[in-house]
Amino acid sequence: MTDNLELSHQKERAFQPQRLSAPRDFAMPAAVLKPESALVLEIGAGKGKHALSFTMQNPDKHLIAIERTRNKFDAFEKMAAQQNSVNLTTIHADAIAWIVHAIAPNSIDSIYILYPNPEQHNPNQQWLNMPFFEFLLSRLQAGGEIILATNIETYMDNAEQQANEIWRLPNTRSQVASSSHRTHFEVKYLARQETCWQLSMTKPEGYQTRFDKWAIASLTI
Ligand SMILES: C[S@@+](CC[C@H](N)C(=O)[O-])C[C@H]1O[C@@H](n2cnc3c(N)ncnc32)[C@H](O)[C@@H]1O
């Protein structure tokens, strides 16, 4: 990768994965232990509307959908049990700790972050502002994509700027079609005639992070 990349995100404070304990009742899912198809992550899956339709439409991919809020996760899990898709794993956990403990470097095909909490009063908690984002990029395969959607224009402006200036990721910003209905929040915002945006970021070949060889001990045995 170019010197420019090293001068950008590698100057930032580094994420410290070794400090994170495994989530309570952590167990490695079979889809991760013996992947049979491309692995896709969804962070903050809510009640799982996107996860349930994605798995129906993409039988060749396995989606791991993570949600930390108990009542949303319970609603999601109930629907997932009814649908019974073999290519869906539902996880009730904080996505940061769970990904650190479960996911190997360069192993993920794509990552969805749809309508994340706006964090307007705490911008350092926005996904592209977090040191964790470098770790997340290390888990993505070269050519893999991160898809972020939001109805908050300032969130999107900042994400696009961070993608360009800090993370140096080729990206495309687009407006979400008013007919789209991927998630409960998307349906709500578009029904109110709000504009929703999407940023699709690609990890280039040869992209380097400080975590490309880092994996929790249990992943390396
Ligand atoms: C605004 S809601 C959007 C839910 C869903 N994606 C949708 O569009 O309907 C954001 C969700 O992200 C979840 N979330 C936020 N941070 C998370 C984290 N670190 N790990 C897992 N879930 C998280 C929240 O619990 C919440 O359900």
Could you characterize what this model shows?
The model has no long low-confidence stretch (mean pLDDT 94). The protein has nine helices and seven strands, in the order H-H-E-H-E-H-E-H-E-H-E-H-E-H-E-H. It has one domain (3-12, 37-220): Vaccinia Virus protein VP39 (Rossmann fold). It is of the alpha/beta class and 221 residues long. The radius of gyration is 17 Å and the shape is globular. A seven-stranded mixed sheet has the order 3-2-1-4-5-7-6, with helices on both faces. The structure holds S-adenosylmethionine. S-adenosylmethionine (SAM) binds next to strand 2, helix 5 and helix 8.
Entry summary:
This protein has 221 residues and is of the alpha/beta class.
Strand order of the largest sheet: 3-2-1-4-5-7-6
Mean of all residue-level pLDDT scores: 94
The H-level CATH homologous superfamily, spelled out, is: Vaccinia Virus protein VP39
CATH topology: Rossmann fold
Give the count of structural domains.
1
The fraction of residues assigned to DSSP E strands is 15-25%
What does the largest sheet look like? Answer: 7 strands, mixed
Name the structural class. Answer: alpha/beta
In N-to-C order, the SSE pattern is HHEHEHEHEHEHEHEH
Termini, distance in Å?
A: 29 Å
CATH class: Alpha Beta
Name of the CATH architecture: 3-Layer(aba) Sandwich
Low-confidence stretches: none
